[in-house]
Amino acid sequence: MPAVEIAAKPRALPVDFARTALVIIDMQRDFLEPGGFGAVLGNDVSLLVKAVAPCRRILEGARAASLLVIHTREGHRPDLSDAPPAKVQRGPVEKRIGADGPMGRILIRGEAGHGIVPALAPLLGEPVLDKPGKGAFYQTDLDLILRNRGIETLLVCGVTTEVCVHTTVREANDRGYRCLVLGDACASYFPEFHEVGLRMIAAQGGIFGWVSTTGEVLTALA
Ligand code: TIU
């Protein structure tokens, strides 16, 4: 498939969709629903819910175009053996990773809160990566999966913009992938961090990648 130009900041990006994957970061109930980890920390989760519909639109578009779709989830083993003590031992004991929350143990694999929100549920055959860190490359086989498929460009969306999306984009950029971040399909508990996070990606000639929208990508896919 020839390259198609997608309007983006700081400039349009030519994309070969045959070598492009959609990566949806951590759209988990723990972050998005009342009673999850994010809400327990005192965050307004409605700020994140705004990203669900754009994520759904780009997910449907990617599936229709047979793009590789990858879902990630942040979380840990029930025995916390993969959770660094420095990550666990923060904040009040009752709000830490592994503590009991309204949707099961916080950020523990297999618990209800760890699951992806129903609107974005993975289909059979779509890789779901469980990651112990903020970045999707750290201690996962994401790079191997992408290289085996000849992927060179990532469409990235999910939550939160300045934490797991940013960390993943920085990791991907250093590994040679072009990252096109879909700004409207990302969100943060801190709107100002979301805005500045997107600006940071596109600054300095696109220091970490490109920033666009679901609408621009869907137009290019059509
Ligand atoms: N997925 C992700 O961003 N994990 C976080 O912990 N984000 C926060 O903003 N806390």
UniProtKB/TrEMBL annotation:
Residues 20-214 form the Isochorismatase-like domain. Pfam families: Isochorismatase. Keywords: Hydrolase. Coiled coil: none annotated. SUPFAM superfamilies: Isochorismatase-like hydrolases. GO terms for molecular function: hydrolase activity. The keyword Isomerase does not apply. The keyword ATP-binding does not apply. This is Cysteine hydrolase. It comes from Bosea spartocytisi.
